[in-house]
Amino acid sequence: MNDFNIKDPEIKEFNAIIIGSGAAGLNCAIHLVQEGIDTSKIAIITEKLGGGTSFNAGSDKQTYYKMSIYGDQGDSPYELAKDLYAGGAMHGDIALIEATNSIREFFHLVQLGVPFPYDEYGGFVGYKTDNDPKQRATSIGPFTSQKMGKCLLNTVKEKNINIFDKHYAIKIIIDDNTKQREAIGLICIKSDELSKEKNVNNLFSSLRIFKARNIIIATGGPAILYKNSVYPTSQKGTTNLAIEAGCKLQNLTESQFGLASTKFRWNVSGSYQQVIPRYYSVDANNAEIEFLNDIFPSFTELSKAIFLKGYQWPFNVALLEGYGSSLIDLAVFHENITLNRHVFLDYTKNPKGFNLAELHPIAKDYLSKSNALADIPIKRLRKLNEQAIKVYDKHNIDITVEPLEIAVCNQHLNGGITCDLWWESTTVKNLFAIGEINGSHGIHRPGGAALNAGQVGGLRVSQKIAHIDYRDQVIESERFQKFLKSELINLKDQFKILLENAPNENSITPLILLDQIQNRMSKYATIIRPLKDLESEIEIIQKQINNIVESIVLERQTDIIDFYCVKDALFTQLFFLQAILNYHLSNGRSRGSYLILRDKLQDSLSEMHILPPGYLKEYKFIHNNVDLSKKIQTLQWKDGQIFIKWEDIREIPTDFGWFENVWKEFLKNKKEYKK
User: Fold this and answer.
1) Does residue 486 register a pLDDT over 50?
2) What is the distance between the alpha carbons of residues 210 and 150, in angstroms, rounded to a whole number?
3) Helix (H) or strand (E) holding 408
4) Record: fold of 502-626
5) Residue 124 carries which DSSP code?
6) How far is residue 342's CA from residue 407's CA, in Å, rounded to a whole number?
7) By C-alpha distance, which of 244, 346, 218 is closest to 568?
């Protein structure tokens, strides 16, 4: 089995390797150059250049969130940090860093060519987004992150930063003999060199080895976990890279879900709701059912909820009572998942009972001021935001004549890898995480805050690498070879088993296993979180993990990428469901993006069931006096087990510096940087 020469694989060495080529990763590469790292020492490793969320996602008016700098609106880094922190389960110092650096990163994007709108005086105008008390949001329309990605990629190419495309990362090489685990390299598969043959040596020759002083994970969220998802199909997610490396993870219970189209994955927020479209489902007899009329007591209440769904796009437990906008998400979920019906938005007809005189004042006033009043939704949408129609036109969906199929979709993970103030893993030295895979967000966050967090993260990582202590350190060759050889031996053994597995009664293909994973997520980890049978399901996952190499059957060598994607999803699912189970056992209440369903009530915790109106009362969810928003749940893989702890959140720092002292410290540090 060990009939290969360890020196055979070519080893490329860099100071900093960024895994992922989305907006966060590209921005980090640019900042590394700006902070003084030579371009020859930086590499971007990506499975598919332009395949990530930032290059493919959007909405009617995709938001970038920052501190307000417009007109007479009072704002400050501290005020913004307070609002980020108020979302719960977020560290105050991280909130302050994201707030303080938001303007710096915003103007960095402006300088790179992102055309954020400004008025005749040069002021960058803003508007309110979800969970936003001010007007901090800005946008260039449906394609904000896509334009960001293009401008960032153009700059990366102009600076001649190394890009290794079609490289799928399968293992971070770790030195675990040091006091703290340390990332020293990366193993990838060159996907376009895979053949259809089942040959171990050929598969082994597709490996690419990288030696790196610093590794930055920028691969986004766990995109393939959910069937109903807004993530682009080109993005997969690599959370298990961090799990196997020994990273601590946090807040895995916290995700964002919202309404999105399914034929073409796109958020139906903002304008798509503000024009008051018709919602309906189709049953087994092809009958159309306007199901929302059975939930809301009047058209006025219904029109208010639909309109506010544009602002309040993410599903939010707090927006259920009082006929709030999140009742729409719950109703769509019920029609789609529980009743197995297809659900549609129709812009060619008004909702049943539509009456302009009974249109809620908040909707009527907005449409009137926007000069967007018209007799049917599509005409209102054309007046309000014609770009929203053109988005679907580009994907051969004509919403002027055909309905738009929708579902409650997974959109963003607010948790991820636990990192310090420099976006470095708290448990693995020299390993950083930026963008969605960094667990900086808490229970709630303002819309667009994730784009800012990804940009700020790239800046902080570049500053740490270039100036503090990692700039010129090298990894001794003998030390690297020792850990590389161990990983390669394990991989070759694994490859041999996978390619030689013959179909039997216990075997399974990667796609069938993925289907099982996604069905589990639909049952236990969407906006509905039942406790019943969760423990037994986790036991099944653990057995699948233990037998995954022996049970998976690959039809061809090229299926190896599917194997690693599904393996990643299975390990990630184990962490997700263990996090949810622990939240149940910690007596957690419904919050954020999910309803907690438990049959038994505990009087000592003042527990009660909250019943949504109408037929949705079957989703009676738990409310109690247990407030876990001041704590963060963390999980770490050690010796084949997941260890879970609840840690207190750190408050927002208030020891703002005195200029003379900060200046002296800054000058001192500049001298040390130049050594």
Assistant:
1) yes
2) 26
3) strand 404-413
4) Methane Monooxygenase Hydroxylase; Chain G, domain 1 (1.20.58)
5) B
6) 8
7) 244
Distance CA 540, CA 497 (A): 22
Residue 346 vs residues 148, 186, 272, 302, 334: alpha-carbon distances, Å: 31, 49, 10, 15, 19
Question: 280 - beta bridge partners?
Answer: 344
d(CA 427, CA 439): 14
CATH topology of 256-411 equal to that of 502-626?
A: no
Query: For residue 446, which amino acid is it?
Result: P
Q: So what's the pLDDT on residue 675? A: 47
Give mean pLDDT, residues 554-578.
95
Confidence of residue 199 (pLDDT cuts 50, 70, 90): confident
CA distance 259 to 229: 10
Distance CA(266)–CA(60), nearest Å, equals 9
The letter for the amino acid at 224 is I
CA distance 248 to 239: 11
Three-state SS across 653-664?
CCCCCCHHHHHH
CB atoms within 10 A of CB 671: 8
Q: What is the spatial distance between Cα 292 and Cα 374, in angstroms, rounded to a whole number?
A: 22
DSSP annotation of 128 reads: -
- Do residues 332 and 290 lie in contact, with contact meaning Cβ atoms separated by under 8 Å? no
The model's pLDDT over 267-307, given as tens digits with 9 standing for 90+, comes to 999 999 999 999 999 999 999 999 999 999 999 999 999 99
Contacts of 409 (CB under 8 A, 6+ apart): 226, 228, 229, 230, 257, 258, 259, 260, 262, 265
d(CA 389, CA 345): 13
Alpha helices in 90-183 (DSSP H): 92-100, 102-112, 144-158
What are the domain boundaries of the chain?
256-411, 502-626
Distance, in Å, from the CA atom of 526 to the CA atom of 333, rounded to the nearest integer, reads: 10
DSSP annotation string for 378-391: HHHHHHH-HHHHHH
Band (606; pLDDT cuts 50, 70, 90): very high
pLDDT tier at 438, thresholds 50, 70, 90: very high
| CATH domain 256-411 topology | Flavocytochrome C3; Chain A, domain 1 (3.90.700)
Beta carbons within 10 angstroms of residue 19's beta carbon:
27
CA distances to 245, 509, 648 from 543, in Å: 21, 16, 33
Mention every residue, 6+ apart, whose C-beta is less than 8 A from residue 331: 279, 291, 292, 295, 616
Q: What's the whole-number mean pLDDT along residues 350-375?
A: 96
Bridge partner list, 596: 529
pLDDT at 357: 94
Cα–Cα distance between 177 and 658 in angstroms, integer?
42
Tell me, what DSSP letter sits at residue 40? G
Residues with Cβ < 8 Å from 33, sequence gap 6 or more?
39, 42, 159, 161
